[in-house]
Structures are given as C-alpha cells and as structure tokens.
Design brief:
Length: 376
Amino acid sequence: MLKSSELYSRLTKYLYSHNWTLSNEVSSEILTLWVNDTLNESIQLPTQTEQGFSHPRAEKTLIEASRDLADILNITVDDLLNLLMPPSDHIHIRAAGEAIEHGRINFRTNHKIESAIYSIIKSAAKAFIVIDSKKDKKKNQPNKSEVVETYLSSVNTVLPTGGSFIYNLDIDLTQTDGLDQPESLQRYVNSKLAVAFNELYNIEDVDTLSTANLIRKGLNQNICSHFVDLFGTDVEIIECSFDWDKSEPAPQIKSNHLVFTRKHRAKVQKLKEKFNSSKEIPLNSVNALLKRLEIKSEFALIQLKIQIEGAERTCDAEIDLDIAQRLMTTLGENIQQPVTINATAWVEKTASKHHYSLLDITSICSEKGKNIALFS
C-alpha cells in the first residue's frame, strides 16, 4: 500500500479527472465527501487539513475509500493501485552545502534550483524527442510540441525527504501513440538525460571537445546553462540519482548515481561559453574533399575540406564504426577523393581561431555517383 499522503494525492487526482466533485454541504474539517452524479456514487476521504490527516481513523478512511472506488470500478484493489500509480522512473536531485540545513533551504535558492530542474527536464525533452514532420502529417501523428507536452505532463514532484534538501521526481511511463521506439516516451527521454549527465560528470578537458562532439554526447546550450543554475551560492554539492522502473529493461548507463561539485560546475560553465560562441551552418549538397578516415576503438574520425564562409575549411567529424566500414567499402582504397555532402557545420569562434566540425551527416556522394546514406 502507498503512504497515506501519496495515496490521498493519487486518489484525489483520479477523482478530479473523472468527474467527481466535492460536496461542501456534508464535508467537515475531518471528512470530505466526493460524489459522482453520473455513477450515483459517493466516497469519503480525510479532509486535507491538519485535523483531517491527524485523525486516528484517517489511514483507515483512505483504505476504505480505495476499496469503495475499486468496487465501483469493478476491479481489484491491486488493479486500482496500478491505475492510480503507473510504472515510474525516479530522479532524485540532492542539494547540499554548509548553509543548507537538514530538510531546510533558503527560499530563493530553492526557487532557483526548482526552476533549473524544470528547465533541464524541458530542454532534454525538446532536444531528444525527434519527430518526422512528413510522417506525422501523413498518419495524423502528434507533432513534436504535443509529444514534448505529453512527456512534461507525466513528470510529478514527490514530497521531499530528509537529508539536506532532496527534490524527488516521478516520471510516469505511458505508451504514446505514433512513436516507433520500443521503450516508452518517458523512459527514452529519461535515459538520454542520464547519459547527458554522465557525460557532464566525466568531461575532463573542455578545450579538446568540439561543439559537434558535445552535441553527439547529448549536450546542448540549454542543458549546460541550466545545470550551472543548479549551483546557487549556498550549494556546494549536487547529487543526482536515477532509479529505473522494472516494467522496462534498465538502460545501460555508466553510473546511476552522480555527485557533482563546484569543480564540475566550472567545467560546465566553460561548455556553456563554448556553445555561446558557436553557430550552426546547414550544408546541402556541398562539394568537399574527403582527406582522412581514422578508425578508433569506439568510433571513427573523418576529415574533410569544405568551402564555408568564403574560404576552404578543415572540418572534423565523428561517425559510427559501421558507417565508417560502409564508407570504406563504397569508396574503395582511395579514401582521399571529391565528394558531395549533406550535413550541419558548427563554427566555434575563439579569440585566436575558428574551429569547424560536422554533425548530422545524412549522406556523402562520391564523384562517381556512389551515394552513401548516413545517419550519425
């Protein structure tokens, strides 16, 4: 059985959304009567007051209400609890510092952290959810804004627990029509966010990473900016944990528990500045010279010379190993040859130079007309 406060919250949320209304005439400071005129039924719950929740029979009243509602819906109590509380992933974010007492935090600091958490969640959904606009028009599928809203509506705040100050989020896992991925929409976004946080945690030398490389790791300007906002002046440590519901296979993540310090904040601040100094340039059927292909242990590096902004630029890109193999098979032994490319170039401007990198390479066509469709 759920905790009393959580059971009350789940029951009232269900009643509100299924045409049950409060009857003020027969409600009191201890008990509240909920009625459904369509079903000609009523249910009693403890009133959401100190007198209601502290009453000796409050917990028993909640249990009886659960049984009554299950009986009205003609289902078992276990089925009702599954209905009230669908499978959920859990994200726990703990803020700690000398100025943060056990279970107590400055109001302004709390507001900044809550705003940053919401912004990270929203930025992750907007970044990781990809909808084929042509497909959704043909099949009347939801557009990207609707799917992002579906994800955000599944995120719930749970009462904070003790231990400095902990923010608990439950993300209900639900099936979303029109999406092809095997996992739920929520698990997909949650796992991508966990990967992004792991990347933030493990970054060592910011200067060696290109903007395109950061985006491939699941990072973007908004996520970095809002991560920095988690560290208010009172906050010295941010702990982040991901607990995966067993209804779906757990994603393969390096670590589900990360402890960030202000040293991590300083690195992410540099990433934020890197994004701020970068811009993207779409390349559609642009002539290029493929110069180099180097196989690494987990990916491959390619280097091309491309005319960008009125001059020939050297651009680097990471591609998957299977794509590199297809590239070598199609082009043959002579990798250095003219090609036509569709991709996105990222230009990072620094005080001393400009750095060019490629992302979203969708195709490379050789001079002989051999086209390689790529998805990186």
